[in-house]
Amino acid sequence: MTLAIYPGSFDPITNGHIDVLKRASKLFDKVIIAVLINQSKTPFLPIETRIDLIIDAIKDIKNVEVDSFNGLTVKYAQSKNANALIRGLRAVSDFEHEMQMAQMNKNLCKDLETIFLVPKVKYNFLSSSVVREIALLGGDISNLVPQSVNDYFESMKK
Ligand code: ADP
After folding, report:
1. Which of 11, 54, 99, 102 is least crowded, fewest Cβ atoms below 10 Å from its Cβ?
2. Residue spans per domain, the chain
3. Rounded-to-integer distance, Cα 63 and Cα 32, Å
4. E strand map for 19-63
5. Would you call 87 a catalytic residue per the annotation?
6. CATH topology classification for 3-157
């Protein structure tokens, strides 16, 4: 069985993440979205909320699960016997940071491959931080995020 881990903050999950996830789910028998708990910067949404929003957003994708983890991504991936890490590549601006992480992870675990997937062009400039900013300023994010995330931010307005 081939297993890929898609690690990230998902603060919150966006349609860009979902696009990458759907592509990964066609390439692997199983994909685990792994939400990082211990970040140096304080996340906007608590871990439980991020996970709940993801569970709802992925309910129609059969071979995808969600989990959370602490510490090194490669250690988590090894504990699951994963074959690959999935990362999304948007604009060129992602490239240097993503390449650095992929090389470091390769250094830590030589058998774990990093696979970069490219989303639809319309998601190239979509990020969790842009979504948060628009939502907090009262803008419409309904075409940028799954229903669960839109509903969550709508309920915050009340
Ligand atoms: P991190 O804090 O690890 O970058 P994110 O949740 O921001 O976590 O992103 C997780 C992964 O998804 C990263 O590889 C990121 O480049 C990718 N990603 C984020 N937004 C998009 C998008 N709109 N299209 C494609 N990939 C994306």
Report:
1. 99
2. 3-157
3. 9
4. 30-36
5. no
6. Rossmann fold (3.40.50)
